Amino acid sequence: xxxxxxxxxxxxxxxxxxxxxxxxxxxxxxxxxxxxxxxxxxxxxxxxxxxxxxxxxxxxxxxxxxxxxxxxxxxxxxxxxxxxxxxxxxxxxxxxxxxxxxxxxxxxxxxxxxxxxxxxxxxxxxxxxxxxxxxxxxxxxxxxxxxxxxxxxxxxxxxxxxxxxxxxxxxxxxxxxxxxxxxxxxxxxxxxxxxxxxxxxxxxxxxxxxxxxxxxxxxxxxxxxxxxxxxxxxxxxxxxxxxxxxxxxxxxxxxxxxxxxxxxxxxxxxxxxxxxxxxxxxxxxxxxxxxxxxxxxxxxxxxxxxxxxxxxxxxxxxxxxxxxxxxxxxxxxxxxxxxxxxxxxxxxxxxxxxxxx
Length: 357
Prior knowledge:
Elements: E1 2-7, H1 8-24, E2 28-32, H2 40-47, E3 53-56, H3 59-68, E4 73-76, H4 85-91, E5 94-97, H5 100-112, E6 117-122, H6 137-144, E7 150-156, H7 169-186, E8 192-194, H8 201-205, E9 215-218, H9 220-224, E10 242-255, E11 281-287, E12 299-301, E13 307-311, E14 316-321, E15 332-337, H10 339-346, E16 352-356
Parallel strand pairs: 1-16, 2-3, 2-9, 3-4, 4-5, 5-6, 6-7, 7-8
Antiparallel strand pairs: 1-10, 10-11, 10-15, 11-14, 12-15, 13-14
């Protein structure tokens, strides 16, 4: 059996620490829950923290959030596909948008549902994922701001999401200046400049965050406490909100190299023989988890003496060496997780989820 545990006290500790930082700097923020993949057990824990704004990239997840906490402001954080527009208007109070034709359809649907839908216009700042080109922003805004049923409440940008372009003070100043351009051209004050994400948090502590950036969307830092510039844990944060464990279902002393004619395995991997290992053996454990659930590269064994060999669809192979810890069949091995590993496991219906006080 494999289990993903969320530690309630560690989550609350990280939330309280971040909330105090943002309150001190008068920054509005919301929690990104796309990592949780709509898992109600964990969503309830996040909502119990007292946050007033939740961000997600799946309408189905926002629907669950609205059912659990109708008064929480929900934000859909990617450009809308046409077929999802009715549900986006119904379950998302705010959405990130970059396409004028889609915003017109959102406007029409908002009118049908007798709502005002708030949008944040995302601006391309170099990472080349979603975003309106800066030179086109004034013309774009001119086509949007008077549409019925639509209220532009922010300008935003993403960093380090595709090509690894990191936020800098200069880039964030540039983003905040777009708000001034809109004000000068249309005499309209846009409330938010949403340039803050987990990757930008270190700039707060080095006093490189422009005052114009007044809205943050935080996921990874809350759950993993990670400084994405250094790869280390942010001061005051707990990196182990999540813990993954899997049961040993076989344990035997086996040769360290395979025997027989080798070909690519089902994952397309080919192995080369290390001749120095001929005749040597090691204890190998098979765990009850596999590629259907997680890529092994996102697992971090808590026992640093373990060596992850690889995985097939439903089994993970771990080398125990001489097995000095005396592991046995039925024991659980515990792992910390990287972000993408937690995302995979949370999206797997084969993994049990638990909350630990």
